[in-house]
Design a protein that fits this description.
60% of the residues lie in helices and 0% in strands. By secondary structure, the chain is mainly α.
Length: 379
């Protein structure tokens, strides 16, 4: 349960932290949010390190007038995390022979669900390995995992954008992956042809929800359909990434409103993260494609129309989208807003599509009750 402190209370009780530079504030936040909790992560705990990275990445896009609000939300996130349960004990010291050796030990610990060893090696790597090292050496394993709500790829995707946030933010997701090492996407034999991926994704069947809206059961629900659809698709990573992002944005704009805040946000953010990593192209397309097949097979209720204009209403200006996201409490809104900006940069021909998708989610949240963080007191 997140805390109920208000903006006014944060400003008064954490005046010292809010007087720091962004670099120092984010380093302080990382020291706290980078430490995993003992019990299995709920949605808030799982997302907190990713939310911190996404908030930090969006912060430079914000006008100076809104920075106080956005920084106060970062402190609110830290306080909420502190109140979310007991943290794990300090991991014991290690002396691995090399970074690659430590990664091998980490992956072995994940496979055997030895969570203490997972945390020891993840903590050591967070202090000693660069973001590029971690992306390169952990990319395939984390991208293929459906444990931790398949968010391992997002953690790697966001890592390194803000130097003040170190690799310790991987500790929590590594621990969650270690709880269910058998939850994996099977990519063998897929993406071995030349059919455009977009054509296949537009033929995803509507299977209905599998009984749970969690990531693993939805992707498993669509696994057979993914094998049927993705065997002969092209492994072109650029065309594939654009196809995946477009289908995700169309889903946000055209399909069931029931899944706007969480389901359709993940339909963009998870496959996008997989495609951003330096993986074998066939593996990347197969994994990300299988994820989207599972999401749309489970949540989809109507065929997508690639020719339908996304501009049902004028998209909000970028600065307004950033401000709304960084003032808000929901991690998915923050991550999705950043994901839409990333998608527009990678697929500039469809930048208007991603602006519309981000605006659609922001508008949806504007109709929902908020946490009254900014009500009353000094603003």
């Amino acid at each position: 349960m997140v805390n109920n402190m208000t903006y006014s209370e944060i400003r008064h009780q954490f005046a010292e932290q809010l007087s720091w530079t962004d670099t120092r504030l984010l380093a302080w936040a990382t020291e706290i949010i980078g430490v995993p909790k003992e019990t299995p992560a709920n949605s808030f705990v799982l997302h907190a390190p990713l939310e911190l990275m996404a908030r930090a990445a969006l912060l430079p896009r914000l006008s100076s007038g809104d920075r106080d609000h956005a920084r106060a939300r970062i402190v609110w996130l830290v306080v909420s995390y502190l109140e979310a349960g007991a943290s794990v004990s300090l991991p014991g010291s290690l002396s691995p022979p090399s970074i690659s050796g430590a990664v091998s030990s980490l992956l072995k610990a994940i496979e055997t669900s030895d969570l203490d060893e997972v945390d020891r090696y993840a903590a050591w790597l967070g202090e000693n390995a660069s973001a590029d090292d971690l992306k390169r050496l952990l990319g395939t394993s984390f991208a293929c995992s459906l444990a931790g709500a398949a968010h391992g790829s997002i953690a790697l995707h966001l890592m390194g954008r803000t130097p003040a946030i170190g690799g310790s933010v991987l500790r929590g997701i590594a621990r969650e992956i270690g709880r269910h090492p058998e939850w994996k996407v099977q990519s063998d034999g897929l993406a071995t042809g030349d059919r455009p991926l977009l054509d296949a994704l537009l033929e995803i069947p509507e299977l209905g929800m599998p009984g749970s809206s969690s990531i693993f059961p939805m992707v498993a629900h669509g696994a057979d359909a993914a094998i049927d659809l993705l065997g002969n698709v092209s492994s072109d990573p650029i065309a594939g990434a654009r196809a995946l992002s477009r289908v995700a944005a169309w889903s946000m704009l055209q399909d069931s409103a029931e899944h706007v805040p969480y389901g359709w946000t993940h339909t963009l953010s998870i496959p996008q993260a997989v495609m951003s990593l330096d993986l074998d192209p066939a593996v990347a397309v197969a994994v990300a494609g299988t994820q989207i097949v599972g999401f749309r097979a489970s949540m989809g209720t109507r065929p997508l129309d690639p020719w339908r204009s996304p501009q049902e209403a004028a998209p909000s200006p970028e600065v307004d989208l950033v401000s709304s996201a960084l003032r808000h409490f929901d991690a998915h809104l923050v991550k999705y807003t950043l994901a839409c900006f990333d998608a527009a940069a990678a697929d500039p021909e469809q930048a208007h599509l991603y602006a519309a998708a981000a605006s659609h989610l922001s508008s949806w949240w504007a109709t929902q009750p908020d946490d009254r963080f900014f009500e009353g007191g000094d603003q």
